[in-house]
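hey all, quick one before standup. I had two proteins in the batch that finished overnight and I want to keep them in one place so we stop losing track of which output belongs to which input. First protein below, input sequence then structure tokens straight from the run.
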Amino acid sequence: MDKRRRIGEVNSEPGIGGREARAGFCSRTTGQRSAYAIVAFFMVALGGCGLMEKSEPPEQEPPPAEPAPVVEPEPEPIVVADLSTVMNYLELGEPDRALEMIGRLSEESPNSQVLARLLRQIEMPIDQLLPGPYRQIEVGPGESLSLIAARELGDPLMFYALARLNGIDVPSRIPVGTVLRIPELPDPPTAETPEANSIESPTRISTPEIESVAEYLARSGQVEQARHMLIGRLEDAATPESTHELLVGLTLERASQLRAEGAYDQATSVIDRALSVVDFPEPRARLRLARSATRSQMFVEAAQSLRERGELVPAYEMAINATRLDFASTDADQLVTELRQQVVDELHNQALLAWRDRNVDLAIRTWESLLAVVPGFEPASVYLERARRLRQRLGEP
């Protein structure tokens, strides 16, 4: 009983014993809490580091390299089987390819005189094709083997035979100054026998061949010979519009060259010759426009010459004619504007001087001349009316 009492007293007595017991419990609890706090701190710290480590983005792997683009081989160019291709092969020194093309074309045109002539140049022994004796000439600036063959042999298509005779592998590449052997002909070609006419009779050559040969002649610097050949065909037989177009293109090219040289009359004649054989409306319209532009440019230069000599009125009238021929000519329009101002300034000033000097007749004549040329110049009309009234008051006729 005493034991239970002591225990009860200890537990129930709010004295020192009970406070000490509670204090000991609290002190133990605080220490444990501190330990727990330290442990928790390190765990949080470690956990935070782990989280930080985990939160860092992983190293990015380099993106996979793009596959290299597939380079497809360029398609083989389409080779058109025509006479122009054969001549291109020969110009480039490729007789085997030319022979293959001639064989294909001969199946379609077994009687082609042009193909036969080209074939002989490839296969026939050169000393039989171009026998001696020979003389020497030198290649000049702007000359081709075709041009030389036309001039010396009377046939521009003999360029490949001439190349073989002189050991030239690529006929299209012949430097200026090259010395060539040329056969001595008993009857050399002359100016009276145009080179283009030597390619057999135009009526014996098909239209596609005529066009191909003409294009080749133009490429080799023989535009006039090409034009003569086409004109001959248009005069002798009905031809498709393509032949007319080809002649017009070559004619305009030639006329442009002549205009650049100042040979306007000759350029006009070249156009007129083509107009005499071209029948289709659109090609004819192009030729007529070119003719008007040529004449207009000629008038512009004539007006400029008159202007330099001080003949302003004739120059102005010539410039107006130039604009009427070619409405699109900016040179003619500008010249008209400049000359109009010059004519007005000169004649109006002359009339004013005469008016101030009381030379009424001279003033009237000068203003009348000005208005005849520039009808819309209002100040001249006003002054002329005053001068006429004054002359009437003075009783002059």
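OK second protein, same deal, sequence then tokens:
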Amino acid sequence: MPRYMHQFSYSLESMKAMAAKPQDRRAAAEKLMAAAGGKLIDVYFCFGDYDGVVISEFPANVNAASVALAAGASGAFSDMKTTVLITMEESMEAMAKAGQVAKDYRPPAG
């Protein structure tokens, strides 16, 4: 199954709630992902542009997008980004195909 990286920042209200009452949000994320046919692989809090990262698996992009839409609509997050992760094996296939496809590509010329 394809894997995804979901990066997120909590809303101010969510941060206040978790600071007042610390809570493990893994179970809520697992339930949401399972409802969309996916599986939560791991969850991390982090420093930087986002407050956290989730790695998940879904059978298709539509399933992953449904989770992003549902979570985003909840108001719990101020920013979210989902990235499709490509295995090294898939990357090698893409590189080989790029070599074939590039033969027919001509860049813009002035």
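Flagging for whoever picks this up: The radius of gyration is 18 Å. Helices lie at 12-20, 26-35, 61-73, 88-102.
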